[in-house]
Hints:
It is built from four helices and two strands; from the N terminus they run ααββαα. It has helices spanning 2-29, 35-68, 93-103, 108-141, and strands at 72-75, 80-83. The protein is elongated and about 75 Å long.
Amino acid sequence: MEIITTSISIIFILIILASPILILKVIIKSNLVNKLLSYLIFSFIICGILITLISWWNHESNKILLENLNGYVFNPDSNNYQVNYNNVLPKDLAKVKKLEKKIMGIGWPLKAIFLFILFTSYIYIVYGVNYLKNKLKIKNNR
């Protein structure tokens, strides 16, 4: 199960890293007047959605792994799920404790906000590299 959740997370990361590049290629081929503004708007919207999805998936995949290791059980007294070590195998105890620390603390929405703030610099870097590449190409053609 861990391989499946990790594979899905890696696919999400690759899609997030490739999306600004693909958006830029589509914007350049279009007839839009202000390409930078269009690129920024589309990139922020699409990457924001993707970053929200990966943050949510990371949180949910940790819960799935905890359930798979019998460490995440329903407590009828509180009408909620909680981490319980009673049914966990001794070899999986360290992994369950590590997963418990991951789901506790700040929630996935705040993690998504922080990740989006950090990711905005990547969006600008992709545009800047493309701009410099085009300037060098024009300069070499002269």
